[in-house]
Amino acid sequence: ASAASAASAASAASAVKPNAARHVPPLTVSVDVPAKTNLTLHVGAPRAEWGGRHELDTIYCGVGVYDTITVTSKEPGSGFSLDLAGEHLGDLASTGSDMRRNHAVLALFALAEACGREPDVSLNIEKRIPVAAGLGGGSADAAGALLALDELWDLHWPIARLREIAATLGADMPFCLTGGYARGTGFGERIEDIPADSPAARQLKSRGFAGLAMIGAYADALSTPAVYAAFDRLGAGDGEENHLQHAAIALHPRSGDAIREAVAAGARQAFVSGSGPSVIAFVADEQAAADGRRAWTASHAVDRILMAQAPAAPRSRRLSNPVRASQTMKLRLRQSKRLNHIHTGGAGHE
Ligand SMILES: C[C@](O)(CO)[C@H](O)COP(=O)(O)OP(=O)(O)OC[C@H]1O[C@@H](n2ccc(N)nc2=O)[C@H](O)[C@@H]1O
Ligand SMILES: Nc1ncnc2c1ncn2[C@@H]1O[C@H](COP(=O)(O)OP(=O)(O)OP(=O)(O)O)[C@@H](O)[C@H]1O
């Protein structure tokens, strides 16, 4: 069940038990949030009122490589902390990376402000989604933080309300709250769910956009604004459902090699994920996956291969004991009291 349905199930349960013992909010909540891709991504004109972001019509799909976001209540007045763990942290691991700008931290401050709470929370992110890879990892972490805090703080807000907050933080975030399949319009933030048993979902499945997917990931990153800027110069490739694919391959030719290799090895669908550089290849079965992996390995068309199921959705867990990270790389930020003011719209910027 998704975190959203878990949340509404919890509030429904308390509604039918008026005499039950007072509900005690959990002290730790953990949410696994999948990566996202775009099965189609039609890009229109940039719009000044969206800060130059482009009009989109896209079919989003959750892809089952999960980041785990864990939130734990802290002493009142103690502020927030952030722990990041994972083998491939990309630019998040660099000393110049400002963890106060981490998307999950921004989500914590946005929700705290919206519900009038202090952000006295420790955030723990176990990253598995490749960073700056076109897989929406930062958006997934922000969505996970919103879902987990919604439970930790016993808010149980409707998804539509969480989506409004998510939309102030980034185009992909409203989708990442629910995953599955969905259509996105506006700058990507207006979401219409595509239920799993709908004709539209059945059509996507029959076109091969479901089941086992290989993700070809790279040590290189692509900046999303740079890919949109390249799209503005180059336009979309002929017949390509992802209008950013041509621009992403122009900036990162190995993504084009990976698509060709995957198709030659029998993949049902192979395309650049969002703004790239990652490539997603849907395969019919384990045998086709083995063929695809061999082709990518022999040709060195990708640096890393991850396997995933799609479509995928967030899932939440209440924990009685805080989790301990045990990964190879671990980064930590302890926040100063002053930072609270910066992120809640108070005094100035650093
Ligand atoms: C490429 C996609 O991942 C496809 O879903 C999204 O369009 C990008 O989603 P995102 O990273 O959540 O986007 P945001 O954080 O809102 O914007 C990052 C940058 O991407 C570009 N951007 C994003 C969305 C959009 N509709 N048009 C744009 O031109 C802008 O340069 C913007 O400054
Ligand atoms: N929690 C986070 N996880 C990943 N990146 C983050 C996070 N917070 C901030 N960032 C910053 O966001 C940048 C984009 O990372 P992300 O993994 O979201 O890329 P992406 O999937 O290509 O983005 P997009 O959603 O634009 O397609 C990174 O380079 C990083 O500096």
Care to give the gist of this entry?
With 350 residues, this protein is an alpha+beta fold.
Task: Describe the model.
The protein has 350 residues and is α+β, with helices and mostly antiparallel strands. The chain is built from eleven helices and twelve strands. The chain has two domains: 1-11 and 26-207 and 315-322 and 329-344, 2-Layer Sandwich (Ribosomal Protein S5, domain 2); 211-310, Alpha-Beta Plaits. Strands 1, 2, 3, 4, 5, 6, 11 and 12 form an eight-stranded mixed β-sheet that branches. It has a four-stranded antiparallel β-sheet with strand order 8-9-7-10. The radius of gyration is 20 Å and the shape is globular. The chain has helices at residues 3-15, 103-115, 137-152, 159-167, 173-176, 199-206, 224-234, 245-251, 253-264, 286-299, 337-343; strands at residues 28-46, 54-73, 81-85, 121-126, 181-185, 190-194, 211-217, 269-272, 279-283, 304-310, 315-319, 330-334. The longest helix has 16 residues, at 137-152. Helices cover 33% and strands 27% of the residues. The structure holds 4-diphosphocytidyl-2-C-methyl-D-erythritol (CDM) and adenosine-5'-triphosphate. 4-diphosphocytidyl-2-C-methyl-D-erythritol binds at residues 38, 41, 53-54, 56, 58, 136, 139, 170-172, 187-188, 224-225, 228, 274-275. The site of 4-diphosphocytidyl-2-C-methyl-D-erythritol has 18 residues, from strand 1, strand 2 and helix 7.
